[in-house]
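Appendix B: complex inputs.
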Amino acid sequence: MRTHFCGLIDETLIGQTVTLCGWADVARDLGGVCFIDLRDHEGIVQVVAEASEADGNAEVVATAEKVGYEDCLRITGTVRARHSVNAKIRTGQVEIVATSIEVLNKAEPLPFHHHENPGEETRLKYRYLDLRSPDMQRKMRTRTKLVSALRHWLDARGFQDIETPILTKATPEGARDFLVPARMHPGEFYALPQSPQLFKQILMMAGFDRYYQVARCFRDEALRADRQLEFTQLDMEFAWVSERDVQDLVEAMIRDVFRDVAGVELAAQFPRMTYAEAMRRFGSDKPDLRIALELVDVAELVRDSGFAVFTGPAADPGGRVAALRIPGGASLSRKQIDEYAAHAGKYGAKGLAYIKISETGEISSPIQKFFDEAAFAALVSHVGAGNGDIVFFGAGKYSTVSDFMGAVRLKAGKDFNLVADGWAPLWVTDFPMFEWDDEAQRYVALHHPFTAPSVDDEADLRANAATAVSRGYDMVLNGNEIGGGSIRIHRASMQSAVFDLLGIGAEEAQAKFGFLLDALKYGAPPHGGIAFGIDRIAALMAGTESIRDVIAFPKTTGAQCLMTDAPSPIADAQLAEVHVQVRPRASSAAQ
Amino acid sequence: MRTHFCGLIDETLIGQTVTLCGWADVARDLGGVCFIDLRDHEGIVQVVAEASEADGNAEVVATAEKVGYEDCLRITGTVRARHSVNAKIRTGQVEIVATSIEVLNKAEPLPFHHHENPGEETRLKYRYLDLRSPDMQRKMRTRTKLVSALRHWLDARGFQDIETPILTKATPEGARDFLVPARMHPGEFYALPQSPQLFKQILMMAGFDRYYQVARCFRDEALRADRQLEFTQLDMEFAWVSERDVQDLVEAMIRDVFRDVAGVELAAQFPRMTYAEAMRRFGSDKPDLRIALELVDVAELVRDSGFAVFTGPAADPGGRVAALRIPGGASLSRKQIDEYAAHAGKYGAKGLAYIKISETGEISSPIQKFFDEAAFAALVSHVGAGNGDIVFFGAGKYSTVSDFMGAVRLKAGKDFNLVADGWAPLWVTDFPMFEWDDEAQRYVALHHPFTAPSVDDEADLRANAATAVSRGYDMVLNGNEIGGGSIRIHRASMQSAVFDLLGIGAEEAQAKFGFLLDALKYGAPPHGGIAFGIDRIAALMAGTESIRDVIAFPKTTGAQCLMTDAPSPIADAQLAEVHVQVRPRASSAAQ
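Resulting structure:
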């Protein structure tokens, strides 16, 4: 139907006859001469319909006069040099003089045009129009290139792409499962996988050595701006490896793929940081190293102040008093400081003490009065505060202070333009094996229950569970956890010990994970792996904040597809076939 | 952890020290000298543990003596030439003299060993052990190579791999949907896609031009031997194309991939056959052309016989009387002939008339008596029957006769070794647009409701619905439909007309497919595509009858995963969260 793509017409084709298919991006009728910007996935080229000396060309001009936005056209014409070159587009040196214009499909008046900036609801409802825009085409193509580059990289290195089931077993650990009633088994359900974790471990025990899959995963969680019900991860697993084997290989992969797809040169060696160091310096296990702000511990300097909010945590081994100096932060108004306190509050802060030093050296601080002069001066000096700065202080439980001061750091980075250009990858390692859940009064796994501890001995792990370190690792890029993995447990006795520490009794473990415990008994090899978040990496590469821009048909934060109107009610007869019914409203769980 | 793979050790490494990881495939203790066949995904190498003059090597020998089947080992040793070469394995020229044997994970006594031939239930329950066998490794690797080759081929040609949703809208047309209760929308459900059909069409309207996806699809149908609840297709769609554009491209793809992955050279140009011709000659829309047997229509020759079973259909324009000559078929006993009749009966035959001509020319036929001598001789001559042959006859409704005679043809092909070696691909085209469903008293779509008819005009289609031909096409290989596709409807008015002919009213069409009808209004381009069954193609390439051999974790025909025990019962509290409950048994649909 066509000889060339619109966006690829160039001067080498001048004088040739071409046939193009595309949409009318813009059409202008200048009275007897019409210009149509014809658009396909490669770009835009200008088409001219004008009277011809030879045959008048009247029919072509008449057709062109009636062309409207997004009409689907097939145009034949001759390529010629343009009088007024358009340097903004790739084809700007040339235009097509039309000898035939065929309207393949007339477009009705549009709900919006991509030249406008419609609201997201409209964009999602008419997703097919939204995706036609060159900007969305570019973003989606970045994702395609990313996935393709990853696959080619792994295919060349002996990794096997193996599909694991979507209809699988419910394992109520971690996030909430999506359930699928089983027609052939009344009262029973399949679950959609939260990740292929256990299947990929089984694949290692099954002898596949090096596995990958671009895998769809499902978590029925509250949707935040950057979450989807279903998401895609590059899932990988290796047999007979240590942490560094996995890390070195995937670090090289990420570096190569960023270079090839985005033209970005990442560090030749990613920095490495323990979880403890990341929390201490940046208040985050996924620090954005582009922001040159660091937390400073000041417990020693405030322990003897008269400020009870500080002295308690300063004396508590589980407490923390941390300061964050923001250069130029003295420009913050009282209202803006309150906004910082409110922001910290979302992460658990009860308040946000500060010391502000004006450009001329005047100090304003609600906590100054609790210190004698020397102690206050020592504090100011220790955090390196000078004229024009503000220093925020957080005090309380170690993890809470780290969390909210980390959040303050990110906000300050953005507010004061302290986020450097470029790319800051790093590895975070040595995560705690367990976190104590106050509410459930039991340990929970910081990664997942299949992560190996750094100790080989079960008795050792049991004796030191609170301080045990795991063999997990995360790859962080610009403040995003883009990949997470670990060396897994490969012996049944250690797996049982970990289940036990997590409060999963032998019977429950057998019911849920019996196949894993069995498989570990038959010569399971040491193994480990990692999973990368494709949606997030694609968004980073495409330069967009929203992963919805790199997903063809995303759901809203309300878990709906506005284009197809999913989810939707189902006839009761159809539900009967799968042996379920909608629950009467009263007995349903609270919303 | 290792320097080499077991299966790749060869003579170039003689004298070198290597470290290998793998499983003990076999271990033999010959008293002071132990042999271990060490196996990884690349193959097997022989390891020798023997006393050394240097240091005695006693510990190594002692460890080796205790090695059992499937122990997970790490072995260091020196490569040397073997005394007795084993030509059966790739590494058969060499062996490893062990200097260290580390038992990474001892295997408990196995439920079976892959050297045995356990039943399928056992294989599926202990899938990780089954998959370790070299045969299963080879089959699974064939699939990996197939998918990788297809992707690389398409990536090189500008196709974009785009993911479409798994949680989508129920469209109760075609097969039964799997349903997923929506937690955030009480009483509503997502459905798993039967295919990405509508999404890929929308992608063409969204400007992606050429799309592919290795897509998981879901159909909640009764499982036959070669079906799974979830299956994988290579899904493709092209904008601005005709049938031949699609066919020529994917034919080249299949040819290249068979050559590269399986070393198979398919025909330089696939034969093309209309649906009508395929049914007439082979009684199937997916004829296995390796079998040199053809149906012959004999209505003209039996119309005036005295055999009412023949004369009725022979005179009926909707009837058929067909013959199938089987060379050498005279060897069939009465009992075997009955088996053929029973086989045909499964496909709707009420009986199976025959003429048997012995090697010495004696005729045995229950229908001979209905013919005069000349007419009978003419019939025998027309079907080309000679000494040693049998000819089966089917009479009745055209489609029924075609079906069961097609089934008889396949059975005869197998029984009489008439299936030629090699590969017989072809295109089947010109399918009927609609089939009349006697039960529902309405038309149903032979492909799907989005397939374009060969006529452009809605009035023409409505006037000739019964005989309308679609723009659908199937790729058939050795009697398997490995790919099916069509040019799609790209105008809203034609789509509405087809919905109407299928008994889908305007309101229902809007509720189910409103987004498609909307999208068609905004300049939808002409488009078409195809989908290939990856599981079946992989099975064909791997030389196995069962697609379960090329799926890592398949379900049984009872829709269960025997390894994980899915599906399983779910706590009522968890069901309450998603607003459903198990239906009381009595109100459930009949099993």
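The domain at 291-419 of chain A is CATH 3.30.1360.30 (Gyrase A; domain 2).
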